[in-house]
Amino acid sequence: MTTPSVVDPGGRVEPQPETTSATFDDFVAARSRALLRTAYLLTHDHALAEDLLQTALAKAWFSWHRIQGEPEPYVRKILVNTYATWWRRKWNGEQPTERLPESASPEASAEPTDLWTAMERLPRRMRAAIVLRYFEDLTEAQTADALGCSVGTVKSQTSKALAKLRIDPALAVSPSDPTHAPDDGDLR
Fold first, then answer.
1. What is the pTM of this model?
2. Can you give the residue range of the structural domain that contains 139?
3. Quick check: 178 pLDDT over 60?
4. How many domains does the chain have?
């Protein structure tokens, strides 16, 4: 009788043929919360994030016996690639109606000023680079590996995304805002 191996906090697993199922279950139990967070940061929707993670884990399970070393970067790459294929689909869940729905309140039409609104305006590739680099705290090399691109592409996508976020109206600070710190041009 063999004992199932345990996944360390870093997610490292060395599956053996007779305990593949047990090590996969251990990995899911140990790392699914962190992977769900990544999925949520990519989709900004709890239900879609759960679906994305479930799909990624199902894909990983089929190739689990081939993974050597740490499986988390492999699963994270599946997660990002699956997310990319989802947004390439033509149908996005919208249903045509005869009338436009009315907004529930006047505040609903007001433009919110938060990071999520600005992040939703970014192209998905840039959003994925920002999420992996700054929310998941991956290195440029790890982010490049997860996105399947070069380190230079990660740097340029991150730079362009940050430039877009700097000028996004959802993050704009008005000069009359009391939390606004004056710069050299504001001194009077």
1. 0.57
2. 112-173
3. no
4. 2
